[in-house]
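Duplicate of #3305? Posting structure anyway:
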């Protein structure tokens, strides 16, 4: 069987997400499986070189996973013609500059989101990539989560009838860092460092809503900084200047309404860290990251409001779980495989820098809506 190498410059993968999802569960998992299979039977084998500013961290990561190539010299890595792809999972604020350097070097680019901190920068990246004729992509991993794939199947089958509303609940309690270490880095809570849950999560909700329920046409967003002070990685108290919660309502094409609560200051009493409830004329569904439950029109109970007696209906009992009839792979890995096939000339890849710019646009409008305390239209992006 023929094997074809593809060199990938992986920048910023010493962080939790970069290491676990992109390096270990995606690129190294693909290598372990013998590469990505192309239509002609060729196996496309990723050959990563790890790049980072901290030599000790990068070398340790490379040694831990048997990766031969690593460097702190990004400029030298970009000049190597044997490496075709540049991937970035580092700081949002640095991403536009890094991507433009990679594009100027003729590399295909793939990156985490947000692609930038404002829509003007995000669009400039798309235009630079288009002008250079390189292939580009943005991580939109939630589209390949089992729970969301089940929602897509229900939608495509007509299960919902007309979709009326979508309710999203996302988040968990992120410890302040004083008496228990925080689960997220301190920069997440500093506006000057590109932090804030609106910038982070509205980019996700844009592609989830657009792809599953209808394009966003307008929004109203209220942000909050519920926890005013936190403690950083060196146990130093600092002021949280970025939003740690967002309460956003979206009007969708076709008339449906979506509301998403996103918070790093909420204690979880639901099925998962992310749950989506979709209500339609013919049925409803509630999905988490992996599981999905449905209730059809004919199985819907008929409650009667009476606060004077204990509730006689077990509302959980009337839902049925959608079975795992398919084998679901890691969501990040699935998108990596599609992107690598695209770079090899096989298949389209529509989750590109323009889609990334749409996510930044929604976050930017969310912040503006919060500041102005009003509804805002979401115009079509002029690429």
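Output from current build:
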């Amino acid at each position: 069987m023929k094997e074809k190498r593809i060199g990938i410059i992986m920048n910023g993968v010493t962080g939790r997400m970069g290491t676990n999802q992109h390096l270990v569960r995606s690129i190294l998992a693909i290598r372990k499986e013998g590469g990505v299979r192309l239509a002609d039977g060729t196996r496309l084998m990723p050959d990563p070189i790890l790049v980072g500013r901290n030599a000790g961290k990068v070398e340790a990561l490379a040694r831990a996973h048997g990766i031969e190539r690593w460097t702190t010299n990004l400029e030298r890595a970009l000049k190597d013609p044997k490496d075709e792809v540049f991937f970035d999972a580092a700081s949002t604020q640095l991403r536009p500059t890094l991507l433009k350097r990679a594009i100027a070097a003729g590399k295909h680019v793939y990156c985490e989101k947000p692609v930038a901190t404002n829509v003007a920068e995000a669009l400039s990246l798309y235009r630079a990539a288009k002008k250079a004729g390189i292939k580009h992509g943005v991580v939109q991993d939630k589209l390949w989560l089992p729970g969301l794939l089940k929602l897509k199947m229900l939608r495509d089958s007509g299960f919902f009838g007309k979709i009326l509303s979508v309710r999203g609940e996302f988040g968990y309690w992120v410890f302040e860092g004083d008496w228990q270490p925080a689960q997220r880095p301190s920069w997440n809570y500093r506006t000057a460092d590109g932090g804030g849950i609106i910038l982070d999560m509205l980019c996700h909700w844009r592609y989830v809503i657009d792809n599953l329920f209808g394009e966003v046409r307008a929004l109203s967003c209220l942000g909050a900084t519920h926890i005013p002070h936190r403690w950083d990685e060196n146990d130093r108290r600092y002021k949280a200047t970025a939003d740690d919660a967002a309460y956003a309502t979206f009007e969708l094409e076709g008339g449906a309404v979506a509301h998403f609560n996103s918070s790093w200051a909420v204690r979880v009493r639901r099925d998962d860290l992310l749950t989506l409830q979709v209500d339609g004329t013919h049925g409803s569904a509630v999905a988490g990251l992996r599981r999905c439950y449905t209730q059809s029109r004919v199985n819907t109970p008929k409650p009667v409001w009476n606060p004077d007696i204990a509730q006689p209906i077990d509302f959980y009992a009337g839902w049925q779980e959608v079975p795992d009839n398919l084998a679901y792979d890691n969501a990040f890995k699935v998108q990596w495989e599609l992107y690598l096939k695209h770079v090899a000339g096989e298949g389209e890849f529509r989750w590109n820098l323009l889609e990334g710019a749409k996510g930044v646009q929604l976050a930017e409008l969310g912040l503006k809506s919060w500041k102005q305390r009003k509804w805002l239209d979401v115009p079509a992006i002029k690429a």
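Confirmed duplicate; merging threads. The mean pLDDT is 97. Residues 142-329+361-376 form a domain with the Dihydrodipicolinate Reductase; domain 2 fold (CATH 3.30.360.10).
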